[in-house]
UniProtKB/TrEMBL annotation:
The keyword Lyase applies. This is RNA pseudouridylate synthase. Belongs to the pseudouridine synthase RluA family. Transmembrane segments: none annotated. InterPro entries: PsdUridine_synth_cat_dom_sf, PsdUridine_synth_RluA-like_CS, PsdUridine_synth_RsuA/RluA, RluA_PseudoU_synthase. CDD domains: PseudoU_synth_RluA_like (cd02869).
Amino acid sequence: MVGWTKQIELPTDQPAVSIKEQLTMWHVPRRIRGNFRIARRIYLNGEYQPTSTILKPHDVLLLHWLPTDFITPDSHYVPDDSQSLQILYENDDLLVVNKTKGVKTHPNSPGEDGTMMNFAQAYLIKQGKRAYMVHRLDGQTTGALIIAKVPYVVPMLNQLLHDKTIKRTYLAWVDGHLTQPTGTINLPIGEHPTNSRLRQINGINAKPAVTHWTKIKTVYQQTLVRLQLETGRTHQIRLHMAAIGHPLVGDDLYNPQSNYAGGLLLHSASVQLPIPFSNDIKSIGAPLPPSFPVNLK
């Protein structure tokens, strides 16, 4: 049968919940749960069972997805093996890689290569898998980037991001002295009226955006901060820190007066990731690249 199959042996501490409840707890979308039930594409210990069946420890569930379950079932990124991936974590369904500075997350036009998704495609084709985008990092941002290897975990991971269950921590150098040790920025972000490359506080079609920051240390006229996102708007950290008078060092878009020649100093330092189809939560750190200084002069 064409599609993707996943076999899961339930843990020793499996709660006594129905198949339907377990799929919901795993964030399998409601529409796909319905497809499983209607087409009998879910098996318990080798046999089809109604989704009302109660699960027990060490039961074996087998799920089968079809291309029609997804809006984008196929991955068409051009494989590019010109750059190897630094793998921070990998299982059968996803990987977390350390994104390189100056490399885009994904191509913007058909046939384009040289992006992280192209490098991941070349790596995963050797496993018989494909690369599916979960979230993006700006081109100049380095660090932890989640990439799906199969389409069925993409909506699950998207829901975890939406629910803020996946926690992302960043490090950044900003201009100036922050007088408080911590703070929260709650400013909606929307489109810029005249420049499609930019975003704007309270811009067109603005959406809520929340960033929490913690001061780590100040060196001369710059401060190293740790940031956590509640939302994931384009340029959120860059725009939010600029809005409170502390733009990121090396930010050519929102801090054009910065004279730092090394480019944007923003690093996705870690992700706290609930692993799909399990109770595991992994904290995955991304080492600082040479381009991100421990101290600024």
